[in-house]
Specification:
single chain; about 110 residues; mainly beta; Methionyl-tRNA Fmet Formyltransferase, Chain A, domain 2; 6-stranded antiparallel β-sheet; 6 strands
Amino acid sequence: MLWNRVRGLTPWPGTFTWQKAVPKPRLLKVWEVEPLEGAAGMPGEVLQADKQGLVVACGQGALRILSVQREGARRLNAPEFLIGNPVGVGERLGSALPDGPAQSGRA
């Protein structure tokens, strides 16, 4: 379960995922999450992005991302992160990167 991976790998070496962006994908380090049961969607699909946090579907259930850090930036709680880094419902995190394999198993 990804929740256990985040708990086990924080603070080092950390858990990360990718967000599609132009001109290149953004690395997002995931610091704090909580599991959610009953949520459905494709793994990596953003189900909710608002002041309650960022909810991402997993293989089983979903994770609410509570704290995240964009590459080169400071750690923020999810609502603060969403103010300057819009993430749309339906967007997929961890999608394939240019010149590389899919990264959907990360977080």
